[in-house]
Amino acid sequence: LVYIVLLLRMLLCDPGWEGEYCEQCVRMPGCLHGTCHQPWQCICHNGWAGKFCDKDVHICEHELPCQNGAECVYDGDGEYSCLCPEGFHGKDCERKTGPCEKAGFPCRNGGQCQDENGFARNFTCRCLAGFVGALCENDVDDCLMRPCANGATCHDGINRFSCQCQVGFEGRFCTINIDDCASRPCKNGAKCYDRIHDFDCLCPDGFTGKTCEVSTPEPTWVTFYLPANRENNGAVKSTTSEHLWVTQPDEGGLLKISVKEVVTQRDAGLSESQLVTVLVFGILTAALVLVTILLILRNRQRGRRRSNWCQSPSQANVLYLAAADPCVFSPFTKPFKLVCVF
């Protein structure tokens, strides 16, 4: 409740004043060690200085900021400086004159020289992105991995690259094929097919051209009749009708007439050469069958004669046999016999 009352009183005071009776001035925001006589002032107390009274005027005695045996000198308004001994540098003489300073800070292309505040034996360079080397002297070739596609040209930069795309492609890596059908170039209801830096139009009937912008004339059909039967190389054709296609000419042009014949061909008989071939083939077949029958009959007749000869009694003790005869002479039978093997 008391807090609410105080808040209400503050709200009732003029801007820059506060207190139970609005008798206290409001200090400048951020004022640490100061006071005010008028609103938004910052009047420093003894021993403090600065715009916000935040700096100790006795810093050299109280904080001893200078290092490595350096002498602290107060410069007024809360500022100081350090008189560094030989071999040291920095605001507080905290850095030793080491390899970086002796080499004249050799790191290139924005690289930072590091030598552990001068206490390291050698220096090292901490390079910015896109540079390598002992002194950060080499620019990394960002095009080495060939990031650009579709024949694009890669241009190396500092820790970056850019692609110069071929005609028909776009995007950071030139991987996007530009849609050449986006502008709807095909006319008269034609269907568009995107290509690389090109397009094709599938025209409907009655139109032609790159974008189907040319109208083709409609053909006029005239029907007339020809004689029913005509001979052509021995085959009989039955012509039902002929169609005459007349294309209307342009002014001053020529008239183009195309004739289309609708023909039905009936089954024709064998030609003379085909008949001769069939006849010869039949004669040869019959002759082959006849020869085969004669050979079979001859072999059967020879077999019967040999069988009768082997069964007749022998008139002599010795018989002379042909090598090809199937009968075999046997001397172990009395009287001597011929044993025939069939």
From TrEMBL:
Domain of life: Eukaryota
Organism of provenance: Chelydra serpentina
Key word ATP-binding present: no
InterPro entries listed in its UniProt record: EGF, EGF-like_Ca-bd_dom, EGF-like_CS, EGF-type_Asp/Asn_hydroxyl_site, EGF_Ca-bd_CS, Notch_Cell-Fate_Det
Disulfide bonding pattern of the chain: C84-C93, C127-C136, C165-C174, C203-C212
Compartments where located: Membrane
UniProt topology in membrane: Single-pass type I membrane protein
Record's protein name: Protein delta homolog 2
PANTHER family: CRUMBS FAMILY MEMBER, DELTA-LIKE PROTEIN
Swiss-Prot/TrEMBL keywords: Disulfide bond, EGF-like domain, Glycoprotein, Membrane, Repeat, Signal, Transmembrane, Transmembrane helix
Function: Regulates adipogenesis.
Signal peptide region: 1-19
MF-aspect GO terms: calcium ion binding
GO biological process: establishment or maintenance of epithelial cell apical/basal polarity; heterophilic cell-cell adhesion via plasma membrane cell adhesion molecules; negative regulation of Notch signaling pathway
Acyltransferase among keywords: no
Pfam families cross-referenced by the UniProt entry: EGF, EGF_DL_JAG, hEGF
Membrane spanning stretches: 275-297
Record-annotated EGF-like domain positions: 56-94, 96-137, 139-175, 177-213
Gene Ontology cellular-component annotations: plasma membrane; protein-containing complex
